[in-house]
Amino acid sequence: MTESSGVVIRSTGSACNVLTKEGKIVECRLKGNFRIQGIRSTNPLAVGDNVSFIIRDGDDVGLIDKIEPRHNYIIRKATKLSKHSHIIAANIDQAIVMVTLTSPRTSTGFIDRFLVTAEAYHIPAALIFNKIDNIFGEEITRLNRLIALYESLGYKCYKTSALQNIGIEDVKNLLKDKVSLLSGHSGVGKTALINAVQPGLMRKVGEISGYHQKGKHTTTFAEMLPLNFGGYIIDTPGIKEFGLVNFDKSEIAERFPEMRNLMHQCQFNNCTHIHEPGCAVKLALSKGLIDESRYRNYISIANDEYFEETDWD
To answer: Is the Cα dihedral 133, 136, 139, 140 positive or negative?
Structure first.
């Protein structure tokens, strides 16, 4: 029997591939039932997990007997109304949400829920606006407005066209020497971007459904891919909806940087920023210092309204 350790680079549930410190990829499965940190998760094992495993004499498959504590993770509700959660990835350096204004359209509701989750686990986040070669007229104005908004909040934004090779060098600099999670709706171009960043990976590119203008899934399981210029990118299945997990209502405003900077000025310490008098957040909103769409999304989260991709802003 031999013992080893490594990082999970691909997970299909109880089965996974582990990259050892020696650079060998070993197929592994979980030994027994795991429950990590009390999380009711559909996947106790996630890409990015550091694990220890044993290989018994005569076996080719390792048995994972220990999952090291995670220093962070991105998590969401597994399905609408579900009490379980789904861990998208663990132990990452940054989380990147990929956005398209059309084919398919990404709403600010989806963006903000993703960013709020990243803020909750102190994970730096960035936005990539893809398919910029496919927007015209008023959509260009909306793109520039969104970029100005999120950059004013401290989030780096990138404009790309994966198919036209626009903005790819900037994205490579963003990814270099970091473990990066790339997420977004199906069809926004995650796979095409990975192909553009490192052509040798030869990922399969999906098509857009003409009827609904939604992407067809091409990535079935999360997978950590090594980049030849340094770092790893975690490719994830397209997410249709993003439900928040384990959020206390009183803490939500802290995950909005523009509200976090004003909260100490409110008249009441337990201000919800919805109906109380003397609220610094609502005053800033009335003066146009807080974006109305961001505030609407805050209200939606505070009211525990589960966002779905049909709820456009």
So the answer is: positive
